[in-house]
Design goal:
single chain; 357 residues; Dihydrodipicolinate Reductase, domain 2; 2 domains; 9-stranded mixed beta sheet; 10 helices; 15 strands; 35% helix; binds nicotinamide-adenine-dinucleotide
Length: 357
């Protein structure tokens, strides 16, 4: 019988409760030992509920990662805190001998991305970035089509998540905490997934456009993601963009177009859409398709697969990497390049000029 892995959760807000905690609870080789969160009443409540609902020992609660590390022995932590704390907390955990599953975005600046990569490498521990969409079953199927060469030479890709309305509430719209609006929140997913499906080509330049338009128009009956951290519940602070677009060139000659919106006067669509076009075929996500030619006839294939339990698959992969030492699918090296591209997009928008890497 394997020893149980001792896991701590840092930040017990919306995504910790919706994604991380339930996925760890499904495993009988993992024990959630401790929670760290400065919002005392919530962290106590979460620990109490977990013990009552699942018949497990009540986890220890702490106000900070440092207090947690000081007091209990852990193997790994999930970091599920607001964006501006990601790198500091991940560095602290790695330097204290812990494996880390870090929520997206991995960092908020090119310097942060580089620092985390160096620290992770020196620590010898697993640092996995929570790029949840890479763990979708339909995405895994598209990856197989691309890797088998079914698309031929890839030369153009498009990705988008265009909400008519859907700014998250809470710290997400406060640029000091989130580091950006839809670009850092959902753009990171769209860009990361499409770039990964393309085979992670090296970016050579980006041209970006960020716009603050209609995101804070205070309409009624909008259902959206709500951060649980106290403050900014009504988005009184709205200092981020609400729309972003970009054009990225790669050393393979291929280009990628990205469009993401929390608010845009067009059709509501919360889905992550991908199109990748090649010389022999193309694929799309949502709807899931492979477009090709057979016997001199245009063909269209619908792979029979859904999204699957992607959070569970993400957590299972993290635990597998911790146990075996294998490099995560969503690793720190690729995470750093994604941060470089995201920050390049924002910088290009500020300068109103293309940024070259
Ligand atoms: N992978 C996904 O699809 C996905 C989906 C939603 C959110 N996220 C990411 O998860 C992270 C958390 O988002 P959320 O919606 O759960 O936010 P949230 O506000 O609901 O929860 C954040 C929690 O972290 C706590 N916290 C703040 N600073 C802390 C610190 N220094 N140490 C410990 N705890 C601290 C807060 O008190 C709060 O309980 C964000 O980075 C977000 O981008 C990812």
């Amino acid at each position: 019988m394997q020893e149980k892995l001792r896991v701590g959760i840092v930040g017990v807000g919306a995504i910790a409760q919706a994604g991380h905690i339930p996925s760890y609870l499904r495993r009988d080789d993992v024990e959630i030992i401790a929670f760290a969160d400065p919002e005392e009443s919530r962290v106590r409540e979460v620990a109490k509920k977990l013990a009552a609902d699942h018949g497990v020992a009540t986890a220890h609660v702490y106000a900070s990662l440092a207090a947690m590390v000081e007091d209990v022995t852990l193997d790994a932590v999930s970091i599920c805190t607001p964006n501006n704390s990601h790198v500091e907390l991940a560095v602290y955990a790695l330097e204290h001998g812990l494996h880390v599953l870090l929520e997206k975005p991995m960092g908020l600046s090119r310097e942060e991305g580089a620092r985390l990569k160096d620290v992770a490498r020196a620590s010898g521990k697993t640092l996995m970035v929570g790029m949840t969409h890479r763990y979708r079953e339909d995405a895994a199927v598209l990856k197989r089509f691309v890797e088998a060469g079914d698309l031929g030479e890839l030369y153009y890709a498009k990705t988008r998540i265009l909400r008519r309305r859907g700014s998250p509430t809470g710290w997400f719209t406060d640029a000091k905490v989130s580091g950006g609006g839809p670009l850092m929140d959902i753009g990171v997913h769209a860009l990361d997934l499409t770039w990964w499906l393309m085979g992670t080509p090296r970016p050579i330049s980006v041209s970006g456009f960020l716009h603050k338009g209609i995101g804070n128009d205070g309409l009624d009956f909008i259902n959206t993601w709500q951060a649980q951290s106290a403050g900014n519940e009504d988005n009184q602070i709205y200092t981020t963009e609400d729309f972003a677009a970009a054009f990225i060139r790669f050393d393979t000659g291929a280009v990628l177009q990205v469009e993401v919106a929390w608010s845009l006067n067009g059709e509501q669509d919360d889905a992550l859409k991908v199109d990748i076009f090649g010389s022999k075929g193309g694929v799309s996500l949502d709807p899931l398709r492979y477009y090709s030619v057979a016997h001199r006839v245009l063909t269209e294939t619908k792979p029979v697969v859904g999204m699957g339990a992607y959070y569970e698959r993400e957590i299972n992969h993290f635990l597998e990497c911790v146990r075996t030492g294998q490099t995560p699918i969503s690793n720190v090296t690729e995470g750093r390049t994604v941060i470089d591209m995201l920050c390049g997009i924002a910088e290009s928008s500020r300068q109103q000029a293309e940024i070259r890497f």
